[in-house]
Amino acid sequence: MKKNCSTFPITRILGSVPIFALFCAASTVNAASFDCTKAAIDVEKIICSDTFISKLDDRLNINFREEIEKASDEEKTNLIKHQKHWLKFTRNRCEDAKCVRRAYWSKSIELGSFSVVRLYKKSDGDLKQILSTANFYSTANDNITAMMCQEILDGLKQAKAIDLVKPKISVMSYEDTALDPWKQHCNIGQSLVIYPDLSMCPKAVSGHATESDDCWFPTYGQPPFKIFEIPIDKTDKQRYLFYMDAGHVTPDVEDAGSEAGGSGDAGFFDLDANHCKATHLWPPSWHVYRNIINIKDKYYFLGLDRGKLYKLTISPIDNTKAKCDWSAKNPNP
User: Fold this and answer.
1) Locate the Lysozyme inhibitor LprI-like N-terminal domain: which residues (predicted)?
2) How many domains does the chain have?
3) What residues have CB less than 8 Å from 68, skipping those under 6 apart?
């Protein structure tokens, strides 16, 4: 299969070459976004020898150029910087086709959310204004819980002894260099959590699953990415919580454009970077705004849904089963 002319491919960005420099490529294998006759490194050879990965490469190239055309000068700079970082530290470190596929899936999901990220304005100031002006009604079922929740809500509204915890790191791209120290041993944000969903796996239901990949869904992160540092029991030890929005995609997708963003385990993860483990802690997926708050030296997750009616949830970090829920709708009008 041959390609004639295209814009300079983002999968081979070089420092001195303009992003829109035109060239004619005589690619003879699988129509990757670059000239496969000049494939120099192992990853490029994998791409050129795999029809499916070539489609992923081609689609990412198209999506990148579309975002570049819409981006401001600052956004263009960041897009190109993150793309170069992805090539060097994510894709080009792959040694097999499975790794390359996942590198493309995760990058496609992040790039697909770029327009949303551009409008990301869920600020702490907005939260404080909502809490101080909106009417919330507790949905607690017993008097003791109701009293505790009311005390928390009153404190939130009056901002008494309550602090919004600032993340140690907050970035809008998995390829931001601030995450590099955290990615030395683990694929934080890229393949952070793998969880089974047999109900969505026809091979498992029919008894024909042969490999673990047949029925396991890697969760790919979407920005923002945040890492919070929380003290443990007033000691010198620190607990790290990782936050991301997420999407998931099956490893045997046939359509190169079938990435599904925003439907996986979004929220906070208990992060053990030394052992490459991350446990999904909180919250339910419907929350739009998420943060961590400090109330009298105790830490809580906070989630706010800003749909037609506000919904507010607060759960202790150490006991997420205990929670306070409020709704803008009066349950006893």
Assistant:
1) 36-102
2) 2
3) 19, 76, 79, 80
| CB neighbours of residue 26 within 10 Å | 11
Domain boundary among 62, 89, 119: 119
Tokens found for residue 308: 């037609």
CA distances from 16 to 12, 20, 89, 91 (A): 12, 12, 19, 21
Please give the radius of gyration of the chain, using alpha carbons only, rounded to the nearest integer.
23
Kindly list the distances between the CA atom of residue 75 and the CA atoms of 64, 68, 116, 317, in Å, as whole numbers in the listed order: 12, 8, 13, 35
Residue among 299, 140, 321, 137 nearest 228 (CA): 299
- Asked if residue 132 and residue 95 are part of one domain, the reply reads no
Same domain? For 114 and 139 the reply is no
- The answer to whether 131 and 157 have CB atoms below 8 angstroms apart is yes
C-alpha angle with apex 67: 64 to 72, nearest 5 degrees?
130
The reply to whether 94 and 142 lie within a common domain is no
Residues ≥6 apart with Cβ < 8 Å to 77: none
Sequence-separated (6 or more) residues with CB below 8 Å from residue 38? none
Q: Do 64 and 155 fall into the same domain?
A: no
Question: Domain limits at 319?
Answer: 122-333
Task: Please write the tens of the pLDDT for every residue from 67-94.
Answer: 899 888 988 998 898 899 889 888 888 8
Q: Are 101 and 56 in contact (CB under 8 A)?
A: yes
Residue length of the chain: 333
Q: Give, for 229, the enclosing helix (H) or strand (E).
A: strand 216-231
Residues 67 and 137 occupy one common structural domain? no
Tens digits of residue pLDDT in 54-65:
988 998 999 899
The secondary structure of residue 165, as a DSSP letter, is P
Per-residue pLDDT of 295-315, as tens digits, reads 878 888 888 876 667 788 888
